[in-house]
């Protein structure tokens, strides 16, 4: 017998899972954003464009090859190369000029948005997942839940653990952490910081590109998604603290949960909570929850 | 130019925006240690940063071992054989002590991590601590160790005893003397007159963005009038 209480718990469980999966996607997108922001102080306003273009490329590759994993990897690789090219050809020439870099990246995002609209049009695309992800998994309380959305959580964990290992257990990671702390000092110790910058930009853009494929598989791709994920990344990084991967995870959880619970339980005010969190963090801990004071 | 000259700065001018900080600095440094003294705001730190390429030179030239480095990137300048120990130490809070040493211990030479741990046993004890968890003296030792592991031909040290307790100042002074006897060139920027004269006999006094006086530790120690004029202190105060 289903009582009112049971139904509420079930809704709660589904909403929680929705929040977790959205948080996973936000984390994958924002982790690259925060790496770039933390190391180079570049507010890459084209990060959302990289997400969306990565998604479209994944769609095309998926449609041509029929292989989702190939689509994911190709989109990630192409976007990583595009990111490296952006850093070499554009941002590297404006080193240390934060505002100019931000404005240039806005310009890139506007051009990219129109080019993508011209090529892929205004319709909605979905990247085809392997069939076993289109099933439903039985979860206690929630009942059946989409395997594709659970895949998102798994991917976020892989990305999170992978970044942790790279940052904390490899020489490259050591250089990146030192660069986030004090890039001038790192360079004065004879380290080729410009090359590290290109590498980190490639990693960040590659992650965004792969996130686009994942988001385009579980959710969908359409014009405007670029701005949406740029905005979410900005808020996640402001809340979590710039340059911090754990911060991006905490920020993504807070923002996605607030958004999902808000929309489910108080639809009218759904959007407000995200900004309430941001205002609270900026008021009491302006460097972000896991960020260091600058 | 003699082979002994490791660093040659000639008529160096540096601006921060519209403010003219270095007004034609010229100096030479070889394997014999040089101390640069002078009051606050006379351009000593700016000189170090300009040599390392961290602030751009408006005009003038900087040569390391006869090679012009003006306009090169800091990492290229560092690779010509300069070790930089900056003001404020600037250790990396996210890196452990050991990681700091691994970061720069890439060159072959007399300085190895094992040797650093012998000379700085305190760093060996704290090898897994983060850079931010160290005391000021430990941070200073780490900043020196990190630069030494580059096996530089010349160390540029900016205020290594600033903000340290007197007993730690003595330790750092002993370390500087030990480095001096290793054949590493040393340009020591130091506000602490006693430390500067203990480490280097050759002294340059900076005033208003230029080298106002070249003298020796013994000459300046004897001349209180000069000390008052250039340093605003006299050794009687100590």
How would you characterize this protein structure?
The complex is a heterodimer of chains A (294) and B (238). Chain A has 294 residues and is an all-alpha fold. Chain A contains 10 helices and 2 strands. Chain A has one domain. A two-stranded antiparallel ribbon of chain A has the order 1-2. The longest helix of chain A is centred in the N-terminal third of the chain and has 37 residues. The mean pLDDT of chain A is 92. Chain B is α/β, with parallel strands linked by helices and 238 residues long. Chain B has a single domain, classed as P-loop containing nucleotide triphosphate hydrolases (Rossmann fold, 3-Layer(aba) Sandwich). In chain B, helix 7 links the parallel strand 7 and strand 8. In chain B, helix 3 runs parallel beside helix 6. Chain B is globular and about 45 Å long. Chains A and B meet through helix 6 of A and helix 2 and helix 3 of B.
Question: What is this structure's SSE topology?
Answer:
The complex is a heterodimer of chains A (294) and B (238).
Chain A: H1 4-40, H2 47-65, H3 68-89, H4 98-120, E1 136-139, E2 143-146, H5 147-169, H6 171-188, H7 193-218, H8 225-240, H9 245-265, H10 270-284
Antiparallel strand pairs in A: 1-2
Chain B: E1 7-16, E2 19-29, E3 34-37, H1 44-52, E4 59-64, E5 67-68, H2 74-78, E6 82-85, H3 97-104, H4 113-119, H5 121-125, H6 136-148, E7 154-158, H7 166-180, E8 185-189, H8 193-199, E9 202-207, E10 210-216, H9 217-222, H10 224-231
Parallel strand pairs in B: 3-8, 3-9, 6-7, 7-8
Antiparallel strand pairs in B: 1-2, 1-4, 4-5, 9-10
